[in-house]
Amino acid sequence: MDDLETLSENSVETNETETISDYNAETDVPLYNQQLQQCMNSRQNAYMTELGGWHQQLDMIFHDFDGWRGVVQEIKDRFPKPQKED
To answer: What is the distance between the alpha carbons of residues 18 and 64, in angstroms, rounded to a whole number?
Structure first.
């Protein structure tokens, strides 16, 4: 049991050390937030132009849920969220 705890503690220390040394909160967080905001704006514009307002989307969901879902997935694939640096 002690060996397992020691192994686990060593693994955590190594991972934290590698992650912390490569991470810069002053530059990484604002950059990620900017990229995320760009992604959300692009998706929102695409939803409005390709699916219409929420009234049209509710109608599409009611009549063709799978079609609506497919269009939403295409938009998400076209404008993926940025990956967080771990």
So the answer is: 48
27/82 Cα distance (integer angstroms)? 15
User: pTM of whole model > 0.85?
Assistant: no
* Distance spanning both ends of the chain, measured CA to CA: 29
In whole angstroms, give the CA distance from residue 7 to residue 41: 45
For 17-68, how does the pLDDT look when each residue is reduced to its tens digit (9 = 90+)? 445 566 676 777 888 889 999 999 999 999 999 999 999 999 999 999 999 9
11, 16, 58, 75 from 86: Cα distances, Å:
15, 10, 37, 26
